[in-house]
Write a structure and sequence with these properties.
The chain is α+β, with helices and mostly antiparallel strands. The chain has helices at residues 22-34, 122-128, 143-157, 194-202, 261-271, 275-282, 286-295, 320-337, 380-406, and strands at 8-11, 39-45, 48-52, 73-81, 87-95, 104-115, 119-120, 130-131, 135-139, 174-178, 221-222, 225-226, 228-238, 241-253, 306-314, 346-359, 420-422.
């Protein structure tokens, strides 16, 4: 295996783990109030129960993750190091299809729910309605390195005949960020390199997705608790056919006092420990104590309230307009956990469909006519509800998985083992 360097862990996915409109924003609070009566059944990984709302209508896919959508793959590079800097950071890559990424695109859409953040490539994606890049997530200070890494990946894997050029003539790299400076020395600009982005893309796999404090989620916190990467999926029957919708989030938002009390109660039951206790344990991290002291001097109205990146994938035939409507519904899933997407929060969503491949080879003459097939509008409501369910559960799973990583499993239940490699450069 290629060297990664300085204590970097490449997490291979072999782990056995089971709208911007006023109406939508107002609906967040209403939906959050209505989410009560959780039950626990099944499991997203060994020793970790699955929290299920009785209002949920749809079943998850086999992995209950975004990779239940055919062709979609996920890869992580996780960086953990204690000296000379305290590093808890990484990269998560979502590869949208198994074809030639340089010459085949997918219908897509995206939007900011609250724009205090960065998501490169969103402008071209919105303008064209086409996703022609893997989606990478990382920390705020590493967007540039990861952005460069995507270009290096394409130059390596899809070179053109002319030196220094590439077959990739599509949009710019899609790189989203969340701030992990509470647990990570984010000002270390050498912690993440362009090669790490290449590695995350190259090692992306289908199957179960490692969740919690892994990849881009390694140093993330939400509701003042360890959080990070979460994923969930839903199976839908539409027009006599079976489809899958999957979600992956990098969760880094909101204050403890805003966590939906029903979710809090069910999390405590599932983890076998008070979330207040977990919050206190998380705050013992040395980097956290240093950073928290500076933020405690700020007035409450200026305190930082984090971000969330939401990626939605489906094999339902949807065009950019329909995918935009699906992306808007992510706001309801975010609100269901207790977030109101405050001023300092960067909350962005990308939604794409793998149902139809779009040829983008520039040398193809003449360029083919595109015939877009989309689901009938009367069938979209179940898709919206499935989106809200999956976004909500993905956040719950991020909290569950991250605390299984950082704290002993309750009642002696076995903790899942990730297959990982740590090597020097």
């Amino acid at each position: 295996m290629a060297a990664l360097g300085r204590g970097k862990q490449t997490i291979l996915l072999k782990q056995s783990l089971k709208t911007t409109t006023v109406g939508l924003l107002a609906g967040i609070l209403l939906y959050a109030v209505c989410q009560t009566g959780f039950s626990e059944r099944s499991a997203i990984q060994p020793g970790l129960p699955r929290i299920v709302m009785p209002q949920w209508e749809f079943q998850p896919g086999p992995w209950n993750s975004i990779t239940d959508v055919p062709q979609v793959k996920v890869g992580h590079v996780t960086i953990q190091k204690d000296a000379p800097h305290h590093l808890r950071t990484g990269i998560t890559a979502i590869v949208p299809h198994s074809g030639n990424l340089a010459t085949v695109g997918l219908w897509a859409s995206g939007l900011w729910l609250n724009g205090n953040g960065e998501l490169t490539g969103l402008g071209p994606l919105q303008s064209s309605g086409i996703l022609n890049s893997p989606i990478l997530l990382t920390n705020t200070f590493s967007v540039g390195a990861v952005h460069t890494g995507v270009f290096r990946y394409f130059l390596k894997h899809y070179p053109a005949k002319e030196p220094g050029s590439t077959l990739w003539g599509g949009q710019l790299p899609v790189v989203g960020e969340c701030y992990d400076g509470y647990f990570n020395t984010i000002e270390d600009l050498d912690a993440i390199t362009p090669q790490d982005a290449v590695t995350a893309i190259e090692q992306a796999q289908s199957g179960p997705v490692a969740q919690g404090s892994v990849g881009a989620g390694t140093g993330m916190r939400s509701f003042e608790l360890h959080a990070g990467i979460g994923s969930a999926s839903r199976i839908l029957q539409l027009g006599g056919r079976t489809y899958t919708l999957g979600v992956l989030v990098n969760m880094n938002h909101s204050h403890f006092r805003h966590l939906n009390p029903e979710i809090r109660a069910r999390l405590e039951k599932a983890l076998g420990i008070s979330l207040e206790t977990l919050r206190e344990q998380d705050s013992q991290d040395s980097r956290f104590r240093q950073k928290a002291a500076s933020y405690q001097r700020l007035p409450q109205t200026r305190s930082r309230q984090g971000s969330i990146m939401v990626i939605i994938a489906t094999n339902i035939p949807l065009g950019p307009q329909e995918l935009h409507a699906v992306a808007e519904r992510a706001a309801l899933g975010i609100g269901a956990t207790g977030s109101a997407m405050n001023t300092t929060s960067g909350d962005a969503v990308i939604a794409f469909s793998t149902a139809e491949s779009i040829p983008l080879e520039e040398s193809q003459t003449p360029l083919p006519l595109l015939r877009q097939q989309t689901l009938h509008p009367d069938q979209l409501s179940p898709v919206y509800r499935a989106t809200v369910e999956a976004v909500t559960e993905a956040q719950i799973n991020a909290l569950l998985a991250s605390h299984q990583t950082h704290h002993p499993a309750p009642n002696g239940a076995p903790e899942p083992k990730a297959t990982s490699t740590s090597t020097g450069r």
